[in-house]
Amino acid sequence: MKRNWRAKLKTALLASAVTLFAFSLICYPKQSLQASIRGLNMWWEVVFPSLLPFFIVSELLISFGVVSFLGVLLEPLMRPLFRVPGVGGFAWAMGMASGYPSGAKLTARLYQEKQLSTIEAERLSSFTNSSNPLFIFGAVSAGFFNNPQLGLLLAVSHYLGNIAVGLVMRFHGIRKERGQPKRRPRSFSLPYALRTLHKTRLKNEQPLGKLLGDAVHSSVQTLLMIGGFIILFSVVNQLLYMMHLTEQLAPLLRQLLRLVQLPEQLDIPIFSGLFEITLGSQMISQTDEAELLEKAVAVSFVLAFGGFSVQAQVASILAEANIRFQPFFIARFLHGVFAASFTYLLWEPLYLRAAGNETGNIPVFWHAAAESVWHERWQWLQHYGPLATMLFLCLYIWLAANASNKTRGRL
């Protein structure tokens, strides 16, 4: 009876939310279109061309057995520290290099390959998803803050927070594993790693063209799903602001900001960042009432939390592999707290001392370095990203058409 009541309440809430969303689209068509275009541009210019190479290479590395090879070599490190197999080291490294939601995709792929148990997949997904260096250095520090020196502080705090989350989440699921035999980490053995690589390649032996086509097809499909979520949450964020719900919910966040001694004027920027990290980071950087340290702490939390847009992407990927989303969601709060704390603690050694002064003002030579390497790469991606996206979408359509024709031929 109680379960039936909960199911009915859930149905009513979901139906009401979707109806309100549809009604809002009708009331604010112009603002919805602008938000949709903003989300599409982010996916079109940056997300698709930056993530696609990592996704394709990851699929090929798994098929050729390189990931299994690295898993054997990294087993002595990953098993004692994080209680995950050595292949988790590959997902961890690729997640940091390529950014959200690569870690979740690789975790799901390794779980489907039966290289991870359910508990290990939940642990691994919790700390292998993070912002990539290009976004932290190029977009946030050099682009939004016009302060490349800040990128080092944000990046170190972000990745240290990620490691801290992994060390905490190693205790996740211990009770469920008590009845299972303990897996001791295999000692470092290069010959065994090479044999594992060869066996894995033979098991997945297919023509190179087929492997490459499958990798492109799977990667583009995932990125199309990611693009849909980015556009959706960009529109949701705008509609919440237009309906003044952001102003109504922000006071709840304002109370938390008082507890941690941050300016109340950061409430709406942080609230926006809880939905979409790009917009939230930009709004935080433009808050004149906050000091640079306070803005850096707020941005660190937003980057680590990831935003509901990223979390929806991860939830969709994990659901396809039947991996629970709840541990990942809890880990995002932990990552936000850890990253913000490290930003505050490392402010003096990594920013003030590195910049050469104790006042927090940026030296003149840092203004000259605004066009840093990371910023140039970010601008290059925004300029040429749409062309790369268009080319790979055409390739995806061609591969899908060929697969469809082959299926019809067999029938």
Automatic annotation (TrEMBL):
Keyword Thylakoid tagged: no
UniProt superkingdom: Bacteria
Keywords: Membrane, Transmembrane, Transmembrane helix
Residue stretches making up the Nucleoside transporter/FeoB GTPase Gate domain: 46-140, 223-319
Species annotation: Geobacillus stearothermophilus
Transmembrane segments annotated in the record for this chain: 51-74, 81-100, 150-169, 223-243, 296-317, 329-347, 383-401
Pfam families attached to this UniProt entry: Gate
Coiled coil location: none
Gene encoding the protein: ylbJ
Protein name: Membrane protein
